[in-house]
Amino acid sequence: MQLIRMFSVLFLAIGGLACGQPLVHDEHEVVVRDSVKLKIAPGPSDPQIQFAPLPSAVDSVAIDPTLGYFVGNLGGGVYWVTDGSYNNMFMVSTHGVIVVDAPPTIGHKLLYAIGNTTRLPVTHLVYSHLHADHIGGASLFNASHPTIIAHAETRNRLATLSPLDPLRPLPNVTFEGDYTVSVGNQTLELSYHGPNHTPGNLFMYAPAQRVAVLVDVIFPGWAPFTELGVADFVPGLIAAHDVLLTFDFDVFVAGHVAQLGTKHDVLQQKKYIEDLRDSCASALNGDMTDAIGPTVAANPGNVWATPKALFRVAAQICADNTTSRWLGVLGAVDVFAFENAYRMVNSLLIEYDVPGPFSVA
User: Which residues form the Metallo-beta-lactamase domain (predicted)?
Assistant: First the structure.
């Protein structure tokens, strides 16, 4: 629980970027900057870390400090809740409430948000995926005995925990492909399109309200959190952008950052991650002999020293090049630039088969 609180604090403290105003665009045009001078953020040993200022693309809602949370009405009985770092959604029907996720950082505030909106009980709880930072507050709904719904892979992974986590009760309804939650006059469509952030991570869509939900993949207005949102399978993460764009939505609810998104945000992040991928592939295929030479020479016989140096140099080159083009377009591009590039470098090596210096001799 302490780790979750630290994670939330870290998320709230993310710095960001901006060099002037973002360029003008329409919904289907994605633009990046290509001439911003970048200085990678200092390391953890520095006494003070100063990141670039946030651009106007970061438009977080104001959180009432007394309440500690914000509830937004998306229309048609759909609401989203945020504590400034974590988000979730609930739907009020004529017969009960459907809740999507229960982040422990929001915790009991989620009960207040729902209770101040309706007197109807929570009858259904949907797990977006297995991670505790998004469903670790699920046990708060035990009193109403909701039907808990998740992808089969989510249940399988939760069931491997020993002992079972009482804060994340096992779902009692699972599915493999698609599943429709129907309660009273509300409908929420769940679908699975393969692993991305995690195996079992769901696409969720409220067709009547044209609201889409996908957790830990898209970060509206912001660059992705560290290691591409701690992505389990980067090719699936990248493909998820195109899958999400097939849904006919006006509003997008993300798992993090205190702002809603649109299709433009999905297109913008897709462009950023593709740029990151291409930049890291270029770095891997470049000549890094001189850059890693001193590390190799200083560690004779240490078989881990060479790949460590190579991964670090390739990631830094990729981070520098990509961030210089996106500083001022997405929030906090400089904060996790290296970590995101490092994850992409490793994905290219083992998931995409871009072997670089590890090619067949």
Answer: 86-256
